[in-house]
Specification:
2 copies of one chain form a homodimer. Chain A is an alpha+beta fold. Chain A folds into 2 domains: 7-109, OB fold (Dihydrolipoamide Acetyltransferase, E2P); 128-434, BirA Bifunctional Protein, domain 2, CATH 3.30.930. The first copy, chain A, is 30% helix and 26% strand. Chain A has helices at residues 63-73, 123-128, 130-133, 137-159, 199-207, 247-277, 293-302, 316-330, 380-389, 394-402, 418-425; strands spanning 16-29, 33-40, 43-50, 80-89, 98-109, 163-164, 170-171, 183-186, 190-194, 212-220, 233-242, 290-292, 334-338, 360-365, 368-376, 411-417. In chain A, the strands form 3 sheets. The first copy, chain A, has an 8-stranded mixed sheet with strand order 6-10-11-16-15-14-13-12, with helices on both faces. Chain A has a 5-stranded mixed barrel with strand order 1-2-3-5-4. Chain A starts with 15 loop residues before the first strand and ends in a 21-residue tail after the last helix. At the A-B interface, strand 1, helix 3, helix 4, strand 6 and strand 7 of A face strand 1, helix 3, helix 4, strand 6 and strand 7 of B. Chains A, B: This is Aspartate--tRNA ligase. Chains A, B: Belongs to the class-II aminoacyl-tRNA synthetase family. Type 2 subfamily. Chains A, B: Pfam families: tRNA-synt_2, tRNA_anti-codon.
Chain lengths: 446, 446
């Protein structure tokens, strides 16, 4: 493995012997010369071979040269190979100003001649052949951006002494509600459920005295919807912290976290995102704007959109409208909507004693909700009352109520969908584009 | 939230007003003076209050002081509270040389008087009340060690341009074998399976041209065993890399990764691990010793243990014996056992052309297997043949074979159980001790 040179390092390297490995992007098989564009995980490079064709007059020829020419002629798109050759800098070569004259060519695994998808194939077809779809430079970049985004978030937390937890995805009870739960048979007549969120277990870390925790892990929803923002399995980014005064402390952490992480993406991938997505990454300033829900609804109404929902919440168009307003007014892509009525929030959201509204927020990014955050109710008697108001059966929640019977700190946190964040950051129109292998009601494979 | 001072910062702070938050470890309620040991996520501190008891002669007293004394007398172990008071350095105070004279005491949530577990409660009882069990300093430290370990591993990979993937846990087919799979109903008459490992999907990243990837995520096994090393849900640490020459390249990466990560743990937590576990963290030197399986069996036999297994593999006692040999001979806690026969390895392990043995290894740490690593077979025709030899039904694997029909690089990787590594590193006798919330055949809650 030691001798392989990554394509990104070729330009800085002196002319001479070199070995590269990757897959065939294109072959231009001209009569006198053959060109292969080889790609690896870091870039593309032009390989060249002076073709040796069978002599028409039957005169003797170099058998090795003939064989190499034939081998190159028969290369399929996607074939993985290693080439040893001579590196030469040549400013006429558009692709990086270097070229490799092929010495030896070793095919690792040849691709079938017919590629089942093309660059313009539909989304569903592309998902069928996701491993080929992911070879596109844009798609590769998406997952490098994801990597940077997550590492920057984790580093933010680690620098501040957060503990990373891995909460169980198999549960004996529902995590938040009984709706949209996958269930399975679990040994001798038990039923297990797949966690919709780590909500209860990240709260458990607070009563365990962990102080500040985070988790990035899969969550599952048996949600039959087919929108561009929903999946049955998604990566959830969660954090929970103790000794807060209100949801405002959670919002402050989240906005710092996002500004840091998006800043890291802009630094590391900004130029390439510009090239491949024609997009400028905007690193958000802190604090993000905050607007109480009631005021947001007034603003949306004044803009001429009458929200049809009667429960007092925003709908997707309302979210787009308020985000447009914020962008126009404050030049900001993010906005915290605050002060939701308890009726449209989970039972465990703490309520403000004066207003009766929840100490919670939704975070919108470019018109789409990416997060719900809140201070949680840590007083067990209040919590039980609020659960009862929602008609939840206390026997299923008793294990959760127990958490708060032996002492609990004030605490709160947020959950954020990784794919939604990434979709919006890279200007994509569906989370399918930014999910390694999407899972939906009719999509379980590959 | 801004005014709270963490206990670890008290020593360096000047005498004067201070506010701390945490939970009650102990109360010593003496007639003339009351002491409370308060713990937060960073340490413990002594709070003091000169008791004001009701005067026996009925003379007038400070009502506030009386109330505070009563409040402290009634504090339960585990009650979370905030105390504002006066910090005073006093070298006679054993606990950190500081003390806080209580000014105001605000209870966040009072604990029930009876704590359901004690320090010496059995494992099962402690798991029932895991959120209380986790308050122990040792248990808290376990998860801070876990956090450091994981972050060091991810940083190692990120520094080397690995891509982080989140592979799906819901699958249409089995991931490796049909044994020990959880299945669930998935919308209109579909069946989904929970991934036993990300094996196929991390290989998919290689044919997608990702080059080097990692994932730390849950995996699921419907395994009815009750050993100290098995769980139905566990955190799997996985990496996969392209363009390797053999499994040796994977082993080299893994030993560097582990040396780096264990080094980070020793640096950050070494002293505290020594204090709480009476254990010196040994940072392993690289390379780790390597011993071919056949030779390992000879060594074990020469030590007087005759392995009863007839399949040529080691058994748990054989693993302990060979590890003891390596420790005695090389002073090393790790050993790679290599050159396994194909009959005892997965069908996708590549075989050495000369020996017919697989290009794979097991990594043992202190006598316990923590990893299997291998070069994978990337030639689809060979792969199909090897699957057929194992009696696997090709129709269930065709989606996987497809990965290799459109070009593939030589590649390999490993999977490692986080809990096993942590258990051994901290000298624990069960993965239950180092798992946030353990899941086993009879354990689904809390």
């Amino acid at each position: 493995m030691s001798e392989r040179v990554l394509v990104q390092h070729l330009q800085a390297r002196q002319d001479g012997p070199v070995s590269v490995s990757g897959w065939v992007e294109t072959v231009r098989d001209q009569k006198k010369v053959q060109f292969v564009i080889l790609r690896d995980e870091t870039g593309s490079v032009q390989l060249v071979n002076p073709a040796t064709r069978p002599a028409e007059d039957g005169s003797e020829q170099d058998a090795g040269a003939l064989a190499l020419t034939t081998l190159i002629s028969e290369l399929s798109h996607g074939t993985f190979l290693t080439v040893a050759g001579e590196l030469k800098h040549d400013e006429r070569v558009k692709l990086g100003g270097v070229e490799i004259k092929i010495g030896a060519l070793d095919v690792a695994a040849a691709a079938l001649a017919e590629t089942p998808i093309a660059a313009d194939s539909g989304m569903d077809k592309r998902m069928d052949w996701r491993f080929l779809d992911l070879r596109q430079r844009r798609n590769n970049l998406i997952f490098r951006v994801q990597t940077t985004l997550e590492h920057a978030m984790r580093s933010y937390w680690i620098d501040r002494d957060y503990i990373e937890v891995h909460s169980p995805k198999l549960m004996a009870s529902a995590s938040e509600s009984n709706a949209e739960l996958f269930s399975l048979d679990y040994f001798e007549d038990q039923t297990a459920y797949l966690a919709q969120s780590p909500q209860f277990f990240k709260q458990m870390a607070q009563v365990a005295g962990f102080g500040k925790i985070f988790e990035i892990a899969p969550a599952f929803r048996a949600d039959p919807s087919f929108t561009s923002r929903h999946a049955t399995e998604f990566t959830s980014i969660d954090a929970e912290i103790s000794w807060i005064d209100s949801h405002e402390d959670v919002a402050t952490m989240q906005e710092e976290l996002l500004a840091t992480a998006i800043g890291a993406v802009a630094d590391k991938h900004g130029a390439e995102i510009k090239e491949l997505f024609d997009l400028d990454i905007v690193v958000p300033t802190v604090p993000f704007p905050r607007i109480p829900l009631a005021e947001a609804r007034e603003i949306v109404k004044a803009r001429g959109y009458d929200i049809p929902r009667t429960d007092g919440d925003l709908d997707p168009e309302g979210e787009r409208q308020i985000s447009a307003h914020v962008l126009e007014t404050y030049g900001h892509q993010f906005v915290f909507i605050t002060d939701y009525h308890p009726e449209i929030r989970a039972f465990y959201h703490m309520r403000d004693e004066k207003t009766g509204l929840t100490k919670s927020y939704d975070l919108l990014f470019q018109g789409v909700e990416i997060t719900t955050g809140a201070q949680r109710e840590h007083r067990v008697d209040v919590l039980i009352t609020q659960a009862a108001e929602k008609g939840l059966e206390p026997e299923h929640l008793d294990f959760y109520f127990d958490f708060f019977r032996y002492g609990a700190p004030p605490h709160g946190g947020f959950g954020m969908g990784l794919a939604r964040l990434l979709m919006l950051l890279l200007g994509q129109d569906s989370i399918r584009e930014v999910t390694y292998l999407f899972r939906g009601p009719t999509r379980l494979a590959p």
